[in-house]
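Regression test attached.
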Amino acid sequence: EAQVTQNPRYLITVTGKKLTVTCSQNMNHEYMSWYRQDPGLGLRQIYYSMNVEVTDKGDVPEGYKVSRKEKRNFPLILESPSPNQTSLYFCASSPPGPSYNEQFFGPGTRLTVL
Amino acid sequence: AQSVTQPDIHITVSEGASLELRCNYSYGATPYLFWYVQSPGQGLQLLLKYFSGDTLVQGIKGFEAEFKRSQSSFNLRKPSVHWSDAAEYFCAVVRPNSGNTPLVFGKGTRLSVIA
């Protein structure tokens, strides 16, 4: 089944404790992206990657890191999480070509930073 | 900069009634347009998209949307709502062939369905 998977789905952590949220897609998509969703703000892009070893900042990159060493994986790293990073996070991927902007979303990771 | 406005934060409709969710965008040219649905506890699923051509597009789950250039709108419609349609709906736009430009989402409209 074609899908985007994220792990973990739920995470409660404490301020300053490094964490990684994994994202993997099995559709051979080149473009991958991370969003955060907050009430009243909709979805905002954190980072994106056009291909392996190519990443760039989105609208709200502060406090986050990403890497793209393989085409299928795009982990989101919080080196020192803070309470304002409590949010619902979505990973997405897109195929190449004219339809590349049609993004497929993972199920989400709900992160709470205490 | 592109922007998307979904004027209705929350809409409640009766099961079987018709539905229209509004979406207006601000952009100098015609962007690519999308509607996504997010069911409780789920990720976003693409309902339909408009790139060019026929301005009335059909999507999954019986939804359709109409692109109106003169009104910069892309409203989502369904003739008869089912209880399972209760969810949050997001309109999104992106500049065509924009390379690394991200999707710009509206803030969403939450749909409640009552018996």
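Expected vs. actual: identical. Chain B touches chain A through 23 residues (CB under 8 Å).
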